[in-house]
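Lines hold sequence, tokenised fold; shown next:
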Amino acid sequence: MNEEVPTYRLIESVENMNLFANITNVLSSDVLSRIATYIDEPPAKTTKAVNGLVYTIVGGLMKRTTSEIGVNQLYNHIQKGRFDGSLTENMATVLRDPTLTNTLIMQGNDVISHLLPAMKSSIGNMISGYAGIRNSSAIALLGLITSLVLHVLGKQVKDQKLDADGLAASLFTERETLVNAVPEDFMPQLVEKVGLHQVVAGLAMPARRAAESSGRSTATATRPAVSYEPVDESDGDNETLTKWGVGALIALALGIGGYYLYQNTQRYSDGQEEVKDVTTITSDTVQTDTVARSLAVPIDSSAKTPPKSTSVAAITTAAPSTTVATAGDLTSKIAPYLGNAALPKGRVFPLTSITFPPGSFSMTPGSEAGIAELTTLLKTYPSLQVQLVGYANDAKGNMTNKSLSFKRVVEIKHRLMAAGIDYMRLDAIGRGTGVSKADTSGIPKPTLRKIDLKVVVK
């Protein structure tokens, strides 16, 4: 079985190129041969699969960095994963060690699950069919090539001292090279599977976090110079006393208005909590996990007297559907916030209408209304980017609370994606019980079981 590795390279000409040129240099004939041996596939098919994966990963990362969430995630994964190019300096030697090779595969597959969520299987199937290799081989290659690409990017970040915005911009300098390099028979599959329509057409641009921190968007720059983001007050030392006084009065007025709005929102929310308590107790789904309620303060339902104006309605309308939040409740709370450009991003809203049975990450039937409402909300505000933050303290069997909390928010994310929401607008993170293992204060902390919606970009 001394089949010769094809002599064609990833990119035929590497002049004036950066990322692809560096990847090509790493993927020498010796490296490709060792990769083929490791996955037990013919060298020719392995090379074709590797090429396809390079295009797929780079294209996917370009699309990912068109959102602020994606820019941050890519940069953070490179930094935290220590992707600095050290392993790619002598990749052939690395591939002689099966343990180290397997570590790279696992690390790459873990990263791809976060950067291109819910796409690992579809990418594996695409590459398997394109190159004619086993699906398991395609998945192994996906992890390995992802690690390789991130190492090349990481070295670029280190050598050029790039920040997150610089990394995203650098990626997009390779767009034309990518479009010209992808084989004609592979381009349609790549565009369709990864959703690169706008990238290929040249309509997509990298998101820039610096646009908000340095001068904000063009729209906000035309307003009076009042900052609604947290700033260093020492920057105003050179302002005149008159300007400072006017600014202080405006800030005070905003603070009073915000406090009033907050208090009214809290009173409304508290009223809803009482209705939900009665509904949960009187329905036949008393064991259903009300995910959105924080368990920081245990509720003694036997000692609570429901408001007379709502208790009868709650009891008579309770249904087995387990819908415990009023329809449109999230929209009524978040719409005024999204419509007010003066309010800063970062506000957190509880998802009270989406519930899970204890120990499960399959949503209850009554959560369909909550998913529908959230879908409508995201379609109504097309620039909205959110983060789903899950907490759980009811894991069963071998599953950990952190895993359960993550699976729940990912389930919500998948439902939103199925409804037509771009995955780049959705981030999902599981925080387990919410109690840090690093906490050495000795003060008992209550565990949490809820799901929050954090507004990342308004």
About this structure: The longest strand covers residues 450-457. The radius of gyration is 26 Å. Strands lie at 348-350, 385-391, 426-430, 450-457.
